[in-house]
Amino acid sequence: MQSSVGVCSSSSSNWLFRFSAAAAPLLPSSLTFPISKSSSSSLITLSTPSLISSPLRSTASASAADSSHLTEMASNDAQDPRLPRISSAIRVIPDFPKPGIMFQDITTLLLDTKAFKDTIDLFVERYRDQNISVVAGVEARGFIFGPPIALAIGAKFVPMRKPNKLPGEVISEEYSLEYGTDKMEMHVGAVQAGDRALVIDDLIATGGTLCAAIKLLERVGAQVVECACVIELPELKGREKLTGKPLFVLVKGA
Amino acid sequence: MSAYRDEDEDPRLHGIKTKIRVVPHFPKSGIMFQDITTLLLDPKAFKDTIDLFVERYKGKNINVVAGIEARGFIFGPPIALAIGAKFVPLRKPKKLPGKVISQEYILEYGRDCLEMHVGAVEAGERALVVDDLIATGGTLCAAMDLLERVGAEVVECACVIELPELKGRERLNGKPLYVLVEYLEV
Description:
The structure holds two protein chains of two kinds.
Chain A: E1 3-9, E2 14-20, H1 67-77, H2 83-89, E3 91-94, E4 102-105, H3 107-110, H4 113-127, E5 134-138, H5 142-153, E6 156-160, E7 170-176, E8 181-187, E9 196-204, H6 208-219, E10 223-232, E11 247-252
Parallel strand pairs in A: 5-6, 5-9, 9-10, 10-11
Antiparallel strand pairs in A: 1-2, 3-4, 7-8
Chain B: E1 2-4, H1 11-19, E2 21-24, E3 32-35, H2 37-40, H3 43-57, E4 64-68, H4 72-83, E5 86-90, E6 100-106, E7 111-117, E8 126-134, H5 138-149, E9 153-162, E10 177-185
């Protein structure tokens, strides 16, 4: 594997690190992700809108002759330059866990130190000035992305778990699966009324899991500010199941 | 009664120790469960926990942080990010998609299995294994086996909590173990 040494300049640090020249996914991706065009999340005002992949692309396209206008549009519309590498670091595994499902594997993203750091940075930049007091991460892959975000923004991290994993008093929320139901649990006392919360998971599909997490937080009086995922599968319309809560994602899977 | 043993005292350790909640008789009678979720509710104590590991491993050329499902997923990634290492999840069976290698290990009653992705770790890479707690050492041992089978060098195992009476340290085939807090039944 080719590797090179680069200097990453980010707002948080300037340190030398090694990274793979190509993200070297373990298997070739069978799908390329379209770059994120997430719907706007109007609850959160961004001080530097160009930082994130919110769609600043206007639907009224300027004429080709108007190049100066296009140039200006391009700089405002620029996708965050970190996104393509993040997108290509995600591996798609066909027919897992069962035939017909194209599984979005983020473990290859975690092997790319720059892409993983950029993923976290993109969320941190969005939320650090939003007075978030709780980051709730959904077991188990939400445990990978949630804590680094929580640490960087000074919020509590609260694990949302499958049944019988959390010791002591819990509250539970049942939710539907394709066949049957499952349950999500949160510790009593972890979150207080008035806490401003994010819900984090690696991916939103149907939205059932995120919905259960939102409900648990709201039952104890927290305010769910936004749900944040690395990947969205828009065809499954999970965004509509979030009881009106905004959703922010970095990449969308076709 | 129970006590946390005082070590050399990095001043941050006291704050960390007091944030760990002991829940009696979970998951079954007789077990004093060490609950780290209360630590995660204290941003300073959680940050101090990560900082203590990062200070130890930064600049030591660690290429891989392997975290054991699920609570190792909470501590491993922040450490990996801070020291510039890959994060590799070690998971229960059938969770990882694609090609995996498996390592079986013995439980008190029965067996369990830990899996790692083929290709995630390369021969010669220097690895840490991270989990919230070491008890008997069975899980950590399986994790080390997986890494060594692909030719990685396990530099150290790192846990927040050790239960020294269960002698897990001795099961690690001579690999060093670093913990922040020891829990003793007094």
